[in-house]
Structure formats: structure tokens, C-alpha cells
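ingest -> validate -> predict -> emit
validate: passed (alphabet ok, no gaps, 425 aa)
predict: started
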Amino acid sequence: MEEYSSLLRKLEGLGLKTGSNLPDNPLDSKKKKHPSIEDVIDGYYEESPFGDVFTVITEYTKDHTHGLQPLSPPRSFQYIWKWAKYHETDLPDIKKVCFLDTETSGLAGGTGTFIFMIGLGAFTEAGFSVTQLFLRDPSEEQAFLAVLSRLTAIFNTVVTYNGKSFDLPMLRSRHIQNHFPFEMGEWHHIDMLHLVRQVWKYSQESRTLKDMEVNILNFHRAQEEVPGWLVPQMYFEYLQSGNPEPMAGVFYHNAIDIVSLAALFCGTAQLLEFPFEPIVIPRQEVDLIALARIHENIASPELAARLYATGIRNGLPVELEQPAVMRYADFCKRNGYFEDALYLWNTAANQGCIDACIELAKYYEHRGTDLAMASHFTETALACLPDSHLFSVLKQREEITRRLARLNKKLGKSDPVQPGGLHGT
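emit:
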């Protein structure tokens, strides 16, 4: 353990210009006892002005299926593009899209953390290709970044899983440390973690990539899989001993992360574009409500309305039914579908929804010009309020009481309601 900590301090203290540049490295004799990495993992060396970088390429054919999901380009990913708030005219060809994942010397980030493996995935004429760059020694970092820049020159869009918070800031930091321009920082970026959290908001408790693999893609990793939390330690052990054999599991881990990311991208694109067509990945009624919210936000009103209506009609869990009805009603109100909004508000009001009663009161007072109905629903809202001294309940009671008093005045009624106010009983 002391040897491990000493090595880590050297790497951080020397700004990663270590390894083969260290004089009389005591680990060299250990490394000579082990095979080189190309003897263990099928790869080759990419050249750069700063040195060679060990590179592994894995090809997947067009008919490859990752769990349930075919690994083939989606017919369109325009709705993912809209969700990411990019202009439709900038929508790239799928071959300009790079799927990226990194492996680092630590999971928390920070100045002492560096990237030792980068996985790049891309759709090609032949299928899907994964290219992995490996940092055999921290002294190769400039060569590592130079090769990365050359290999990614054909892309203009990057897809990650939590890359907004981790991968891209880490890449930016390493480029700055080495005085390299960070072209990828100017690309379009789609972080699938944030989209996945919205699409499967109601049906999946955990939206980690590995859980989505199992629960949505129905893919299970092979025995050579290495847990993510163990990867940094395995790399430092490789630097200490020079034994590349355990790194085969890290290469597998990174490659599957890339393939799962691409498969999830394809499945999500299909689900957003064609939500009512038969699909291979599981879909629940609650997912339709989540999809409706996305389409509502990206200005696809017709598809959003159909998704809301279908999800509600087919049945939802009790805890989601009323919020879904109210959200659909609000959508109808904002888009001028008042007949539908009235039906939905009445449905929710019959279930004791105070907000639905208030919406009906507003409608009949200002649009329906039926003050008696407005008064009726205001009284219903007041009756539905819980007997509570919470500030929020008292405030709502005061607002509803004022509304009822105003309506009764318009109707020429004496006001039977005694406003309790915020401090009333």
C-alpha cells in the first residue's frame, strides 16, 4: 500500500511527466517480467509527433444486437436533437456523431486525476466501430491527446453518459494542462444521462448505465467485466507491476460502456420518434406520460396530446394519475383545447383535486360566464382543504375564501364564509 501511495504522489507531484522519464525507475525490473500489452490485447500503435499510442479497434456488424436493441443507426434522432435545444438545421449525419467514454485515475476528479483510456464509438458503413486509446504510461499523455485529436477530426457531435459533469470537463482540463486546443469543446454535446432520467422518470428507480443495460436493453455483461469503482486501482497496479493482463477487463468494461451508450441512444431515438410503434425495449404506460412531457417541452403538441391521452386512458398508478391529468389539462388550456381541459378538470375535481376545482372556478367566472358554477367549484375547493394549521394550507384557504366572497358579491349573495386568514382557526 505504501508503494502504491508513493507512486500516486510521484504522478501528481510531477504533473504526470513520469514513467519512462523517471531515472532509475525501480519498477522497470518488475515490468520486464511481464508480457507487453500488445501480447495480451489485440491492438496496434497509432503514431503521433509525440510518440506512439496503443490503440484497440473492435468492429460490430450491422446485424449485431446489444441485448434487445439492434446496434444500427436510428431512422432519425431529430427529437433527441430538439431535446438538446439544438436547431434542426444543424442536425448532423449519424456518421458525424461520436460516442465517448473515458476511464480515469480517480472517480472524483480534481487536478491529480488524469485520463488513461478513451473509448470512441461511431456508426460506419460496415456497422459500429469502437476505438480505444490507452495510456501505457503518464509520460505518453501528449501523444495520447494528439492521436485523439486526429481520430476525432471527422466528428462534430459527441454523445456521453454524464459527460457534461465528468468526461468533458476532465478532457478540457487535460488539454489545458498540456497546452493543447480542445476542439471537442466546440462540438454539439448530447448527455444521455439527463435524457434517460426524463424518459424513464416514472418506471426506473435507477438510471445508471449498467441498470439501464439490464432493465431496458436486457444486456448482461460477461465475466471479464470490471466494476467501475475498481478501474483506477487496477490501472495503478498495472503501472506498478507492468502486468497488462488484468487490463483486459478494463478494455472490456470501457468498450461495453460505449456500445451500451450507442444502443440506448438508438432505442431512445426510436421511442421519441415513434412511441406508438412496436419496439424491442420495454415500455410502460407511465413512460408515455414522461414522453408526453418531453414532447410538450420541445414543441410537439400533437404528439404530446396523443401521448397524454393514451397514457391516462390505459391506466396509471394511483399516485401518478391525478398529476398526469392535471398536467394534460394545463397543456390543453395553454394550447386552446378548452373542451378537453374542462373534461380533465372535472375528472380530477370528482377525485377531490383542489387545483382542478380552482381551474374550473376560474374558467366559469372568466370564460364560461357562469358565476353560479364558479361559486360551486370554489365552495368544493374549500371543502376539500384539509383541516391543518400549516402555513401553505392557511394561505390557500385565505385565497379561496376571498375568491368565494367576490363571487358571492357578484351573485348578490350574502357571504356565509367567515375568512379565517393566515392566523385563523
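The beta strands are 44-46, 53-61, 65-66, 69-70, 97-104, 115-123, 127-134, 157-160, 188-191.
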